[in-house]
Amino acid sequence: MKNTLIFSALVGLLTxxxxxxxxxxxxxxxANENIIQLTEIQIKNAGIVTGSxxxxxxxxxxxxxxxxxxxxxxxxxxxxxxxxxxxxxxxLVGMNVRKGQLLAVIEDQQYIQLQQDYLTxxxxxxxxxxxxxxxxxxxxxxxSSDKVYQQSEAEFRGQRVLLSALAEKxxxxxxxxxxxxxxxxxxxxxxxxxxxxxxxxxxxxxxxxVSPTEVMFELINPTDIHLALKVFEKDVDKLFIGQKIMTxxxxxxDKRYVSEIIMIGKDLTADRVSEVQCHFKNYDKALIPxxxxxxxxxxxxxxxxxxxxxxxxxxxxKHYAFIKKASNEFEMKEVQIGNTxxxxxxxxxxxxxxxxxVVKGAYALLMSLKNxxxx
Length: 375
What we know:
Strand content: 35-45%
Oligomer: single chain
CATH topology of one domain: conserved putative lor/sdh protein from methanococcus maripaludis s2 fold
């Protein structure tokens, strides 16, 4: 009997404790921390105004990157068509050169031989021309056979072809045949710059033999540099020729350059990327070929759901908006935002139900909500 009474007492004690614990849990269950209730006076003092989502045309910004390039017509490879030894040059990589400036002096015995052949052919052609004319007169008077006349004509015309070919070789080597004489034969030729720009590469040195297929120097005219942008396939149709873009370098993101799209690639790489060529509106010497650049392209959306900028608040790295739940109750909900233009911010994947948002006073609500949660 005594044991029975003790067991009943323990059961009653545990039951009482369990009821008390359940009651405490029910009493202390936390409320929704993102909901705040205000009085009419508090709403008025905070200047809270509500409104609904709006649909507006808003620009989005496409961010791409690329590299400054020089079109092929602005890159010149300097070589020696007939080869020779590099006798003299003062060039350094990065040095500016002007059109017509002396770049190098090449020497070789073949230039002496070429000039000799030309002058010899030139002196001989006068004799052959006179002989041809003499045989022509004799043939007309039947004092000379047709064979002798035709032979003299062939020799004269062949010598004229030879002289013309040697003259073109001299021009190719940089020697003016009109100014060439027996007293000014030279073993060297001069190489002049065909463009104004700067030296980008030097592949030879003094005393080295340069073959006709070898590039000695590379010159670049940077005044017509282009920006080659890499654009993914899904974004290519958003661009058009003549579209203005803003570009900037990684080192100077604050300095913007206005560019214009001049060509959109018609094929895609293995990474599904197309190349878009852009031209700078104003040339800047600070823009060096090979420099990587970023670009921002404004693209018009058909329509976007937006809220005023004041309706969006930022807290702990996230963006929120307040929704009106009742006449004096507001709930803070996280939102994903897009671009902002003319005081309105785009909402990505918004809830399109007929909800009322706080468009003014959202920051005051955030302060009140967070101060309350800290109490």
